[in-house]
Design goal:
The protein is α+β, with helices and mostly antiparallel strands. 18% of the residues lie in helices and 25% in strands. The termini are far apart.
Length: 181
C-alpha cells in the first residue's frame, strides 16, 4: 500500500503469492504513491501498478519517466495495469479529446500490448468511468510480449461501479502459465 500525500489516492496491491518490492528508478521515485513495481516469482511476472496523475499534477514528467522505464523492461514478463487516467483518442471515449492520449499512445511503441483490446478487438467499446459529459475507458492492462502470449482473458466488471462500490469498473486479467522456451 502506498502512502499518498494529502488527499491524493494511492495504490494497493494484494496477492495470494509473495510480492517482492522492486526499487523505482530515480525518475520514478517522486511518483512512488502513483507507481509501484513488484515481482511475483511464483508467476514469473513483474507487476507495475499505475495511478496516473491528472491535469494539475506533473503528468508530463510522470508519463515520460514511466514510458522510459517500461521500454527498458519490455524484454521481461511485465504486466502494467491500473487507472491510467488516459486512453486512446477515438477509441476509449466519445469525447473529442482524451487526457494524456499522446503519451498513452506510446505504450505499444514501448513494447506493450493493450490486453483488453487483444481479447475484444479494436472496434470494442466499454467505459470504466463516467464523467459529467462523457464516459471513458481509463482502467487498462498492458503486457510485454511474453505476458501477452500468456493472455487468456481480460474483462471489466461494471457492477462494482454500478453498485457504487467504486467510481471505476473492476478490471480482471487472466494469464496462463509461463511459456517454456
Amino acid at each position: 500500500v502506498t502512502e499518498p500525500p494529502g488527499r491524493f489516492g494511492g495504490i494497493a496491491i494484494a496477492s495470494r503469492h509473495a510480492l517482492e518490492p522492486r526499487p523505482l528508478s530515480a525518475e520514478m521515485a517522486p511518483f512512488a504513491f502513483r507507481y509501484q513495481a513488484v515481482g511475483v516469482a511464483a508467476l514469473n511476472l513483474e507487476l507495475r501498478s499505475v495511478y496516473a496523475p491528472l491535469h494539475q499534477d506533473p503528468y508530463r514528467e510522470f508519463w515520460s519517466s514511466m514510458l522510459r522505464d517500461l521500454a527498458a523492461e519490455s524484454h521481461e514478463p511485465v504486466l502494467v495495469c491500473g487507472d491510467f487516467n488516459a486512453g486512446a483518442r477515438g477509441l476509449d471515449s466519445p469525447a473529442p479529446d482524451v487526457f494524456c492520449a499522446t503519451y498513452f499512445s506510446q505504450l505499444p511503441a514501448s513494447g506493450y500490448k493493450d490486453l483488453w483490446r487483444e481479447v475484444h478487438g479494436l472496434e470494442a467499446r466499454e467505459h470504466t468511468w463516467h464523467g459529467r459529459t462523457y464516459p471513458y475507458r481509463l482502467d487498462h492492462a498492458f503486457g510485454s510480449a511474453s505476458v501477452a502470449e500468456r493472455l487468456r482473458g481480460c474483462v471489466y466488471d461494471h457492477g462494482v461501479r454500478e453498485r457504487k462500490l467504486s467510481d471505476h469498473s473492476l478490471l480482471s486479467i487472466e494469464l496462463g502459465a509461463p511459456l517454456v522456451g
